[in-house]
Structure formats: structure tokens, C-alpha cells
Amino acid sequence: MSTSVHDAGQAAPPRLRWLAATIGAFNANKTSWVGLVIVVAVILAAVLAPIIAPHDPLEQNILSRLQPPHENYYLGTDYFGRDILSRLLYGARISLVIGVASTVIALVLGSLIGILAGWYGGKFDVVVMQTMDILLAFPSLILGLILVAMLGPSMENITIAIALTSIPSFARIARAPTITVKERDFIEAGRALAFSDARIMARHILPNIFPEILVMGSLWLASAIRTEASLAFIGLGVKPPIATWGGMIREGFENILDSYWLVLAPSLAILIIVFALNILGDGLRDAIDPKLKGER
Q: Where is the ABC transmembrane type-1 domain (predicted)?
């Protein structure tokens, strides 16, 4: 007896089914592929920065200060004669490391909190989620600014601050599907077999809600990069002379009228990566719930 493609897809392992659904959603929404290509390109540019950067990002050449883009400096130079392109490539490393690290920390801790709250329910759920609501009441940038000001401006502290501002959002995303999944028959079967709570949450609940958390992660990564750039712009980012996109905008702001290229390149870099992550997240969302296609 022949097996239909639909039946074969249903019989495939969950991971393969989700991968097939993601590819199908990306094919239906071509802009998702554009987002993926841009994100991969930015990551490769950051990783290969020591190889492809034409100059040392910290090398100062006073004789070449504030030069517009030309054949020797493709994106021009800054107030200290440093190559903008090289600093842009190395700045991508800082933005991506802080963005990814803070998002992963928030994803892990927030998902754990949300799953525990949804699983145990009752007073524990009420106390935990009300605490998350209090944190959500603060704008993420303001809360991040307060935390960085208290901890001090360093790469590690900025990562921790951005992660703490993101935890409540991940907790809410994880809690809602946990409440739904825990009522399903296979969870009841696990309880009947005397599986521990930890085993059920790790082996049965987490795999079923992880795609939704992953979509949230892709979207929040864009927010984390934007928050890091904002903190750097107001002087609470990684200390100079290390290149960061927000720091480059801050350094060039005073000369923006005469030397537009100082802020144009890092601003476009932030715009492009945030845009790419958002349309990539749209594709992942369509893969999880096809009913949401077209609802932008």
C-alpha cells in the first residue's frame, strides 16, 4: 500500500516536521529567505572581521581624519582617522555577542520560569507572573539603563542587564502553551506512569512549546541589538576605543552635519540587521502557525 506525502510528513519525527514546515513557510514568504541570508551574511562578516577588515579598527591616522568614502577608505574615516568599515565589521562582533548571549540567557531563564509557573499553577503561578508583570511595567531601555548604571558599563554587565529586561517576555510566552500542553493525554499518561515533574517538563512539554519560544528569541534578538546600541549611544555601552555600532553613532553625532558617513554606516547596519531578524521571525512564526500567514 502506497503512503501519501501527507501521511509520511505526519509520521516524520517532530523536528523533521518542523523543519519541513519552516522551509515551506519560507518558500511561501520569500522575504524570510532574504532575512536569513542577511543574518548569515552579517554573522560571517563579524566572524571573518580580522581577515576581511582592510585596516586595524583601533589604528589612528590624524592626517586622514574625517575623510569621506574613497578608494582607500571605502566608508570614510572618523575624527581620529580610524577606518569606518573596519570598525563596522568589528562592531558587529560586539552587537551580535551581546545580543545573542543576552537572548539565550533570557530564553533559558524565562522559559524555565514560565514552564514552572504554568505547570504548578495556583499561588506559585500568581506570585511568579505578578512579579513578571511588575518587570514588564518598566520600558526595557529604561530598566536596562538603570541596571547598567548600577552594575557599570562593561560587556558582561550590559549582557546581564539586557537579559534581565527580556526574561518576563519569555516567561509569558512559555507559560501560556505550558498550561495548554499539560492537559493533553500524553502528559496524563506520563503522570500515570509515575514520571517525575522534571522529566515531563523536559522531555514532553519543552519540545512542544520550544518553536514558539524560538520565534520569540529571533524577534527579541533584534530588540537586544537595538537596546545595546541605545545604551552605547547614551554612553553606557562598552568603553572606547572598542568599536560598537551605537558607540560609532555617538562619536559621529557631533559632526553629523559635515561628516554624515560617521553615523550613516552604523545606523544602516542596525537598521538592516533588525529588519532581517524581524522578517526572519515572521517566517518562523508562519511555520509554527500557518493561520497567522499574512497577519502582519
A: 92-281
